Amino acid sequence: MTRLGHERYCEEILVQTGLFREVLRGADLTAKVPTCPEWTVGELTRHVGEALRWMGTTVRTRAREAVPEEDVPGFGGPRCSDPASLDAWLKEGAELTAAALREAGPDTRVWTWTGDQKAGFWARRAVHETVIHRADLAIAARAPYVLAPEVAADTLEEWLEIGSLPQTMERRPELAGLLGPGRTLCLHATDTGPAGTRWLIDLTGDRIAWRRGGQDERAAATLSGPLTDVLLVFYRRLPADTSTVTVQGDRGLFDEWLGLVSFG
């Protein structure tokens, strides 16, 4: 699938943060977040705001190494827990990050934790970081969650790209336990056209690999359902027994995958 493009990513940072803020305004900042049980809604919000400001600072300063948190302006957010102050801080951080990315353009060289040492990496990462944590907030606040299909697909594909990087396997050697003959997974979005869209995850080689799958391809285990729900199950924001999705085939393999692989 074609990526969304740098300007669209910059715009989506503002869109996704705006949608996050809409739910935040009516939420209890002290409520626990079921999908991130170590956080309250207020702590989740600070995490999102800190991540955006850190990425924006990385790009704005053309960093050549990871930026220390203490070097990120406004990193910790307002000292008070006033919802309006937290909302304004989050809005400002998103705007600063989008502006830094627009000024830099996608090809400016900056530090990242992957081989893709360009500002465009952070534009895409900022969007999908916010997309997933917006789902966390919606679940905590029992609010509706709607995601444009092209954004949902790109969020899924970014996850697959990062998950299949050699660096990921080096950092997480336990992932090698997923590999073996006949071990394949299919993600099938059923609402993206007459035949839907399929992503095939191949665990039969010496590392995790993936590609867009064809309509007639089969896998050892298949997760099927609406695209956004498939994404949220894959990110462990919804349980695999959610009524809108089905898991066919080797459920043990699918559960093993979910138990070992996490991101965001």
Automatic annotation (TrEMBL):
The keyword Hydrolase does not apply. Keywords: Isomerase. This is Maleylpyruvate isomerase family mycothiol-dependent enzyme. Residues 16-138 form the Mycothiol-dependent maleylpyruvate isomerase metal-binding domain. Pfam families: MDMPI_C (PF07398), MDMPI_N (PF11716). It comes from Streptomyces ochraceiscleroticus. InterPro entries: DinB/YfiT-like, Maleyloyr_isom, MDMPI_C-term_domain, MDMPI_metal-binding, SCP2_sterol-bd_dom_sf. GO terms for molecular function: isomerase activity. Residues 150-255 form the MDMPI C-terminal domain.
